[in-house]
Amino acid sequence: MLMNRFLVIFLFLASCTMPDATPIPLTPTQLSPAGWELIEPGLERRSFLPDANGLKEISVLRIDPNLFTFRVHYRPGEPLNIGEWSRELPEAEVIVNANLFDPQNQIVGLLISDGVVYGWSYTDRGGMFYIQDDVPRIRSNIAHPYIPGEPIQQAVQAYPMLVIDGQQAFTNTNNDRITRRTAIGIDYEGRVLIMVTPLAGLGLVELSAFLANTPELDLSMAFNLDGGGSTMRYIATIDDMLLSFDPVPAVLAVYRR
């Protein structure tokens, strides 16, 4: 019975990344010398396998903010699954889950959508991805706490920090567990990296170490977003949809300029 239950869970997880209806064959021009797949100008994708373990796959999108912009969308008390979010935001090129939320589907932490502030900021944990003066940034809520009234257009918060100044930032193994993950980072060239684990996932300590020690990512800062049953992602250009177990009330969406 236990084995059957494990098999059902595994098959469901494996089916959560929906293949394109018509697969797009890659040509040599679609792969950069560094191994990134070019989905469209300014938007690249690459998969990494920590410990060569397929169940730990980390799927990464790398986004050029000179060609794309970011907006936060929030529906308090009215969560949507990724298919519903894609229909709600038909112009979005990428959609990913954002803040953690409570049982009433109200976000936890701070969220700013088009300049409107929701929730309250963490001061003792985690990080914030935000847009200020049309530039994406990430900072630690402990080192640089949010000051009410800051001129920020968009923001999401969650925890913990995973990479700070290129170094592993999370080492606490207490209550660490293997589960699906969503994370966001910025590399040393200012590009935004959105990372999801489509299958079994991995622990936060392992994720933190991998992100900090993988030179192909070149991450300066990164932190963990909501994960587990909330992990979801949509890429419109190739109609790639990673399904979540749960609907979510808040997402970060990426739009072409």
Into which percent range does the helicity of residues fall?
10-25%
SSE pattern: HEEEEEHEEEEEEEEEEHEEEE
End-to-end separation = 52 Å
Number of continuous helical runs: 3
Strand content: 35-45%
Main sheet specs: 8 strands, antiparallel
Radius of gyration: 17 Å
The neighbouring-strand order within the major sheet is 2-3-4-15-14-16-12-13
Q: What is the arithmetic mean of pLDDT?
A: 91
User: How many domains would you count in the coordinates?
Assistant: 1
Helix/strand structural class? mainly beta
Overall spatial form: globular
Beta-strand segment tally? 19
Taking pLDDT < 50 over at least 5 consecutive residues as the criterion, the unreliable ranges are 1-29
Top keywords for this entry?
single chain, 257 residues, mainly beta, six-stranded antiparallel sheet, 35% strand, disordered N terminus
